Amino acid sequence: MKNTENKRSKFRFILLTFSVVFILFGIWFSTTNAYKFVKGYLIFKTEQVKSDDYQSKPAINEKNLERMNEVLYPVRPKAGENIGELIIPKLGASLPIFHGTDEEELKKGVGHYSKSVLPGENDNSVLSGHRDTVFRKLGEVGKGDLLVVETEAGTFTYKVKNVRIVDQNDRTVIVPKPRATLTVSTCYPFDFIGSSPERYILVANLVSKQLNQ
After folding, report:
1. d(Cα 48, Cα 25) in Å, to the nearest integer?
2. Which domains does the chain have, with CATH numbers?
């Protein structure tokens, strides 16, 4: 009888220990980069696309160049609004874009710097994302690769012309551009622990656009 009671006590102790460990793990997981990594992985994996879908887009012709200055977005988006998708054929991924670059937007996907133009418009459209979530593989994207943005206005295909690594306070990332440009930014180095001192930058020019009717 006493032996049975001891076994029950030991079982309850083990069960209690596992419960405490599980709770502590849950608290740790929800307050560290592990949570952000898994969330980014899920966003990344559930939005896959085929690279070939965007490799044969037509170049901008003279007719399209004449339409560059037309109003693409009669109604400007509000903070936190989903404005489209960033498609990265090299990675086979499609990521949601939200207007704004506060943490509230960045934890859901890619953020659009609200003081920059919208995708497809003339000038510099700036996108940012966390290196440990949506942009953890951005280092695999380089010069000559395509970046495609789909919005309510249409589909805009950009070709990376330059890769830069700059200081975290470098403001040249958001300066105006003479033509339609897409600048994509994330923290660097990718495997750095803590607040990263630099930024990995992709600068891409618009090479094709298909406007929605």
Report:
1. 30
2. 48-211 (2.40.260.10)
Query: Is the pLDDT at 49 greater than 80, yes or no?
Result: no
Cβ-Cβ contacts under 8 Å for 210 (sequence gap 6 or more) = 57, 154, 155
Q: Which of 91, 180, 187, 202 is catalytic?
A: 187
Pairing of strands 154-167, 198-211: antiparallel
pLDDT score, position 58: 47
Instruction: Provide mean pLDDT across the span 175-198.
Output: 92
Q: Which of 99, 112, 130, 209 is catalytic?
A: 130
Say what the pTM is. Answer: 0.72
Find all residues with CB under 8 Å of 71, minimum gap 6, and list them.
none
Is 187 annotated in the active site?
Answer: yes
Mean pLDDT of 118-128: 97
- Are residues 72 and 150 in contact, defined by beta-carbon separation less than 8 angstroms? no
